[in-house]
Amino acid sequence: MVSLRFLLCFLFVSSAYATIVSHDGRAITIDGHRRVLLSGSIHYPRSTPEMWPDLIKKGKEGGLDAIETYVFWNAHEPTRRQYDFSGKLDLIRFLKTIQDEGLYGVLRIGPYACAEWNYGGFPVWLHNMPGMVFRTTNKSFMDEMQNFTTMIVDMVKKEKLFASQGGPIILAQIENEYGNVMGPYGESGKAYIKWCANMAQSLDVGVPWIMCQQNDAPQPMLNTCNGFYCDNFVPNNPNTPKMWTENWTGWFKQWGGKNPHRTTEDVAFSVARFFQRGGTFNNYYMYHGGTNFDRTAGGPYITTSYDYDAPLDEYGNLNQPKYGHLKQLHDVLHSMERTLTYGNISTIDFGNSASATIYKTEEGSSCFFGNGNENSDAKISFQGESYVVPAWSVTILPDCKNEAYNTAKITTQTSMMVKKPNEAEDTPSTLKWSWRPENVDNFILKGKGDSTQTQLFDQKVVTNDQSDYLWYMTTVKFKKRDLFLGKSMSLRVNSTAHALHAFVNGKHIGNQHAENGKFNYVFEKDVKFKSGRNVIALLSITVGLANYGAFFESKPAGITGPIFITGINGDETIVKDLSAHKWSYKTGLNGFENQFFRTESMSKWSVESVPFNRSMTWYKATFKAPLGNDPVVVDLMGLGKGAYHAEKCLTNCGEPTQRWYHVPRSFLNGEGDNTLVLFEEMGGNPSLVSFQTTRVGSVCANVYENKIIELSCDRKPISAIKFASFGNPYGNCGSFEKGTCESSNNTVDILTQECVGKEKCSIDVSTKKFGAPDCSGAARKLAVEVIC
Ligand code: GAL
């Protein structure tokens, strides 16, 4: 008896997690159960350890089974064989947080990530090793990749985090979308993929390995799909379940680019359609995008915000209705797990892109009615009943009779986020600034750096990615009677610097940045050189290293030349090539080297005549953390870099690409003073900079009768009903209008009573509650806007 109790107890403990993960053409099986798996990407370094429990919990409440993350090699091994797993990089802590929440994990080790992450997650020192070529049968590369991958696997094994050890991780990934870029690598590419498969397999993790977008994935690697739609995807191996590793919930943003947006209805449609057509694992990329802190943004030109229009916004707030509408979908799909993974499948084609899919087991059936026509609704008659499936939507009927969900019919509230000024005590609305210049005299007047070479180098080679800034400096001597002098002269720089500032003899002669997509350009300016010694100083700036494409590691960055001085003498052009001159190099900014951002370095900051529109300037201010728990942002309105000045402006004209920057609460002193230090490269006005908090400002819903709608101000009380009408109201959140029919009951009063003062309320949208306005037979709707 005692031993049985012991055994039961043991079984109970170990059943919390899987031990065996297997798969067949139909589904992933975890400890004997075929699963419908919903997963979401959350990248640990794009938030803080303090945020992880809340983000993961929201994932679970949103109906996810698993959390997926890449592993970021360059962050963990910034210098060869020196590792960092601290703070935001504490991978094991992140995985354990997933475990604590009772979710599964998907570990995409790569170690190539892409992910709009600097250099796709590769360390720049790797590029600087002799004879190095990435992602092919290059011995040095394979050795380093194997070294890092093995180290990660060993760390995870040591903590018993693979499902085979009773841990949460059910899948691991090697490489990433190599199939998309494989062509240019030829036969070596094919051999490399085989090597990746063997190497991964030899690590014996006890769970399946995936290789996304790899339609020649060698067995037992599982080939999976990435994209906006994957319902047509067929894996190369018939034993691979239909799996979707990246369902893009939105997109990333680039400097100068528009705000990306993918509608909630379309994300839901893509998921429902995928499961209609035999899918079994769907991962949202991203579920929480977060923030590209430090210099982690890839590129070129990926913004600091990686919001992605994901179900959780950059700060971790619910992005409604996306979050809630998908949660309902997950619940319905989970309720059908058995029929979906065991049922016999039959389909009916109704023509005009309308179809039904029936999953049937002995116990019952589940149905999907799909309408892939973008313009017209489908009228379907099925087993004696008729159904309308709106254009571009899928209806799900877990019992093949009653519609439980339609991807186009949103019954989740829309939340409108607002920014509030910092309400901390003793904090004036405007910050008090002090300033100091970046000391550039040594460079622009003397041309003096740390090392010299008679060659122009790619920026990565010199900086090893220790900074975005690199000075290229040289001196040119002209004799008094030099043919050049006095002629119309110019400096011509063939550049691949993302941004470039040029100085001659201490004078700023101009700057230029590469247009997105055209990273080779010529900077040319008329210059007056003098007899004797002239100093040319070029400051080259990278804005995120490339992260995608075949051989992306060798895309040039910096000033790769050639560089000329030209002089025109009558009809004769004289050209002087400076490319093989003695070039002096200096990595980084003086202010960084001298840690201007440290609070102790108080001296030399001046509060007098704080300059505006001065380039290369440091600004400093102290402030109190905003009260409360709402996420904090700093509004960098008025500052220069990132402002959109292009003449051909189409959208956001005159607006900065990114205005608000997330400052996680854990970065701040809750009680005492905090210090903000800014470096203004182009010239700007810091007087508009301020700290704010972000929260739900108002909430709207617009739903047909006979539905229940929940209104919530996200842990804040509802303060007022701004608009409410039951009948045929129209318009959008913030601009609803009454229609031609409306209930005579006072809808605002009813809602005020049920909702105001509460954090959430659930409304039964029915004639019983609101009366029965005569809308000439058309379905009635409730439109409501609530102030939080
Ligand atoms: C995919 C890649 C991801 C990410 C995504 C775009 O091709 O695998 O890492 O870069 O594109 O956000």
From TrEMBL:
Belongs to the glycosyl hydrolase 35 family. Residues 1-18 form the signal peptide. This is Beta-galactosidase. The keyword Acetylation does not apply. It is an enzyme of class 3 (hydrolase). Pfam families: BetaGal_gal-bd, GHD, Glyco_hydro_35, SUEL_Lectin. GO terms for molecular function: beta-galactosidase activity; carbohydrate binding. Keywords: Apoplast, Glycoprotein, Glycosidase, Hydrolase, Secreted, Signal. GO terms for cellular component: apoplast; plant-type cell wall; vacuole. SUPFAM superfamilies: (Trans)glycosidases, Galactose-binding domain-like. GO terms for biological process: galactose catabolic process; plant-type cell wall modification. It comes from Brassica napus (Rape). The keyword Signal applies. Residues 703-788 form the SUEL-type lectin domain. It is found in: Secreted, Extracellular space, Apoplast.
